[in-house]
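Dear colleague,

Thank you for sharing your sequence with our group. We've completed the structure prediction you requested, and as agreed, I am returning the results in plain text so they can be pasted directly into your records. Please verify that the sequence below matches your submission; if there's any discrepancy, let me know and we will rerun it promptly.
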Amino acid sequence: AELVLEDGALELVKDYTNDFIDFLINNVKRKQKRNK
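Please find the predicted structure tokens below.
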């Protein structure tokens, strides 16, 4: 049961991290467009 819980948590972390990275990339792109 512990392993399943850890796997589930790991998947959640992966999804959250991917969303966070996309958010950061989008913010950087917007800032670059403003400067040009």
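Summary note from our side: The chain has a mean pLDDT of 88.

Kind regards,
the structure core
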